[in-house]
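Dear colleague,

Thank you for sharing your sequence with our group. We've completed the structure prediction you requested, and as agreed, I am returning the results in plain text so they can be pasted directly into your records. Please verify that the sequence below matches your submission; if there's any discrepancy, let me know and we will rerun it promptly.
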Amino acid sequence: MGFDRMTEIQAKTFDAASLGKDVLGRARTGSGKTVAFLLPALERLLQDNNNKSNKKSTRMLVLSPTRELAQQIAEQTRLLTAHMPNMSHQVMVGGTPKPKDVSAMKRKVPTIIIATPGRLQDHLESTVVHNTPFKDLFRELDVLVLDETDRLLDMGFRREIDKIIKYLPRNKQTLLFSATIPEDVKHVIRQTMRDPYITVDCIHDDQAESSSHTNAQVSQAHVILPTNTRMASGTVDIIRNILEKHNPTRKLSPFSPPPILSPFTPRSCGTSSKFPRILEIHSRKSQSQREKASESFRKTNHGCLLTSDVSARGVDYPDVTHVLQFGVADSRESYIHRLGRTGRAGKLGQGILVLTDVERGFLQHLKGLDIPVHPELQAIVDGPTVESQQDLAPVWASIGSGRNADLALKATKAYVSALGFYNTHLKARCGVKGTDALVAFCNAFAYQVGFTTLPPIEKKTIGKMGLKGIQGLNV
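Please find the predicted structure tokens below.
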């Protein structure tokens, strides 16, 4: 696997984890956390294998916040257990058929299960394998791993985690990894870990409060798009410029609010032979589509992966040279974790934050980070738009005319997603008060991508957003 030395988190946790002690590890993404919990746990399982009374039980459980991270952990597990015939593993995540999980379990109960919380809870509550309740397969569990625990909780899995813990034996070992330790993570620590547990901190407090909290290998810059004229075409121009200028050695990972840009950017940037096909990973893609896109992006040396926060943490794509963030992030921490997709394994990277002038206030949330204006890209979006408008005109026209019903439907969903996302974040992250600015912002987006009349929104959807009675919407 190419290891010649341990990373800091691996070296500092290995002895305690190998001895079966509970370990709390603080480390950033890309620090080698997966191997930090897999190696010592596998060593313990190999040593104890002959002492277990029931060989048909799962010995290790790994909880992951996203399907993509679960698949990545599974790949590391496969490599580490390649010469361990008695060690098997299985991935259980949403987006795949439950019966497929059960069929695999019936063939062989895996030594290691790597799962997302929702799917695992579903199995614990309802699945039976060869007349044995699924929950009984964990009676002799040795190791519980909670990876990216703060992200698990950020994604709303606290209730599922609390329920899962109740099905597991008390005398298990717990290895918990988290970049931050907020109050809800402390709750999980109290629920799962045995005193005295070992704490290993590879994110030092003096660094956590400074701009060095981001990777020193990654340079940062920002671009401001004129809201009323360049939200759509400026986005395309930025991606095109980076791909064209650095062809063929650049890999981009643009993040956008869920999934607002996805209906347009692949068609707008990926139609010319000089640009690579743009791949997508977000919640509206099936699991098989997400896995295919993920694998393609890993293998290419020149490409663009448009993604939401499912790829923000933990997932490792090699040689990503640029991370582009379009629009505000949920928080300062989310911005930093997205940035962590580049500059990995000691390589250089660049992060570019692209905001509209309405979102400019988000820069105040990033105070202390060195994010100057990107002069070259700013000049491009402030300059003439003739070429890009000519290229984009057929795409936008197909939406406005209704000729491309599929794209028009996706554009409508993107518009509604934008309203829902920015209804929360314009005020909280950008300091923009009142609904007039929200509606004007989202309507400008709709008109720029080709709508001649605003997309209709169901009355109940408007009610759920708290926008009932607001002028400027097509209800």
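Summary note from our side: DSSP finds 18 helices and 15 strands in the chain.

Kind regards,
the structure core
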